[in-house]
Amino acid sequence: MNLPKYKDVVKAHERIKPYIHKTPVLTSKSINEITGCEIFFKCENFQKVGAFKFRGACNAVFSPRLKELEQGVSAHSSGNHAAALALAARMRGVPAYIVMPENAPEIKINAVRGYGGKITFCKPTNKARESELEKVNKKTGAQEIHPYNNFNVIAGQGTCAKELMDEVSSLDSIITPLGGGGLLSGTCLAAHGLNPEIKIYGVEPKGAADACLSLKTGKIEPSLNPVTIADGLLTSLGTLTFPIIQSHITEILTVNENTIIEAMFLIWERMKIVIEPSAAVTLAAIIENNELFKNQRVGIILTGGNISISQASSYIKKEPG
Amino acid sequence: MNLPKYKDVVKAHERIKPYIHKTPVLTSKSINEITGCEIFFKCENFQKVGAFKFRGACNAVFSPRLKELEQGVSAHSSGNHAAALALAARMRGVPAYIVMPENAPEIKINAVRGYGGKITFCKPTNKARESELEKVNKKTGAQEIHPYNNFNVIAGQGTCAKELMDEVSSLDSIITPLGGGGLLSGTCLAAHGLNPEIKIYGVEPKGAADACLSLKTGKIEPSLNPVTIADGLLTSLGTLTFPIIQSHITEILTVNENTIIEAMFLIWERMKIVIEPSAAVTLAAIIENNELFKNQRVGIILTGGNISISQASSYIKKEPG
């Protein structure tokens, strides 16, 4: 199998630099005091489309020759990958066909439309999404860009950890959320490419802990009926992401829903930035595993900020204290 | 009367630079599209203590010789000035005595305590605050630092507009919130010092429009029973801030509560940053006075981000749409 390597992350970075934001790295004295470690937050909530997903989509859309993409690109996604792919395609000047479940939130539908994506709606089942996407691909000749199980997407997501480590020296650990593993596998390549000693952690919600199980059983376990507010972390690992993660990861940590909410609002209130629940699992993991990170310099990727205020406020009652 | 001038802002900036954050200037394509102008947001929500108030407090605390301040500094305040003064005093190594109403929110009491401020509680009336502060000053020999009607505070607040205009060229207009006028008067000095042609706007809630009235009558009008969620903008103008504003201001704009909430959440959702209601009046003014700013390059000072998530969520039901 042709897996991406560190040099592919470096190439991806050169390729997408003109299109992405170099997002800031923020720190918070008060969160450092609370957690007992020194945290460097890479703020991909400030990335274009409000999420790191733009990096991978951008690399996938700008890698092939233009001729190969004339018929456009496609994906099924109701989340940040859909908007990211639509914007990247618009920048390259090719059409983007997005298959979305008919019950997708209006805010996400509008985002994809706003970036010029052509939407086909389908029933909200895996089967319907896949068969609808196949139909779209056949009809248009579009090239499918999988949200994470794609060589160029993985290399693109790796640019985020690379930027963080280029800017902040001597990190002991780096932590990312873990859903399909696109970001984590890219982070593995970048982080160990730059520093073979760094510890790499992936975090998933206890209610969607398929990757933790996969590492134990040694094969990709399906994500069965996941239940979590971290709606970006519902999917199972892919055939490309799994082996990379397997050979690099220090540990997969799992976190509770209450801690995700606590961490999310801690970041909102102390750092004055808006992040989505999926992004908060990383700080949640530090809160729940205090001793593991004590006195370390820890890099965290805050993956995105796409949450409506009314959605966020629906979690308030669950906030501890 | 000895009023501060542009050169005092320049001096203040040199003085406080080692202590303050040089806050970022952010832009938002989607908010530009919505408003039809090009907005540059100076993000003082990322300033120390989460508000621009730290600039003025810092300048006031670092201006006198240390000997003059040995007995400490004092203020009555339940808001951002209290925390700002406590932190500035701690940095200089002198005590800060803060008189706070006994019903002040716990989050603000904890902030002041966290910065080492010594709190005296009083009944929540103007009279009680003033007499309590007088007692504290007599007992301790502390020097009172008024939150806005103070030469050095005004000069310090002006550094914010100076930084913005040093970074962003050719602004047509600059807009700040308006409460006691410390920020606006400092902004007047900085902005016209750097560009005599720039238009300067102050914004207050319709429910606390005493400054607008003061400009009309030509004398400082009291702020009688102000009603607004912008709790940083309740006070009336001071004898130092009023004449500066009078001689520089283009216009005072007043805005509705609904628009303040709309503007606040627009910034949260599109820019992924947390701001407090008082900071949102500026964008609210652009939304309500669309034609006035059409196609302009507009600088806005986002004054602070100190709001609890539960407070913010209590405004959701009032959110339009």
Description of the molecule:
- Two copies of one chain form a homodimer.
- Chain A is an alpha/beta fold and 321 residues long.
- Chain A folds into two domains: 6-51 and 150-318, Rossmann fold; 54-144, Rossmann fold (3-Layer(aba) Sandwich).
- Chain A has 14 helices and ten strands.
- Chain A has helices at residues 6-16, 29-35, 53-62, 80-92, 106-114, 126-140, 151-167, 182-194, 210-217, 241-248, 257-271, 277-288, 290-293, 309-313; strands at residues 25-26, 38-43, 73-76, 96-101, 118-122, 143-144, 173-177, 199-205, 251-255, 297-302.
- A six-stranded mixed beta sheet of chain A has the order 1-2-10-7-8-9, sandwiched between helices.
- In chain A, helix 5 (106-114) links the parallel strand 4 (96-101) and strand 5.
- In chain A, helix 1 (6-16) crosses helix 3 (53-62), helix 1 (6-16) packs across helix 8 and helix 11 crosses helix 12.
- The longest helix of chain A is centred in the middle third of the chain and has 17 residues, at 151-167.
- The first copy, chain A, starts with 5 loop residues before the first helix and ends in an 8-residue tail after the last helix.
- The mean pLDDT of chain A is 95.
- Chains A and B meet through helix 11 and helix 14 of A and helix 11 and helix 14 of B.
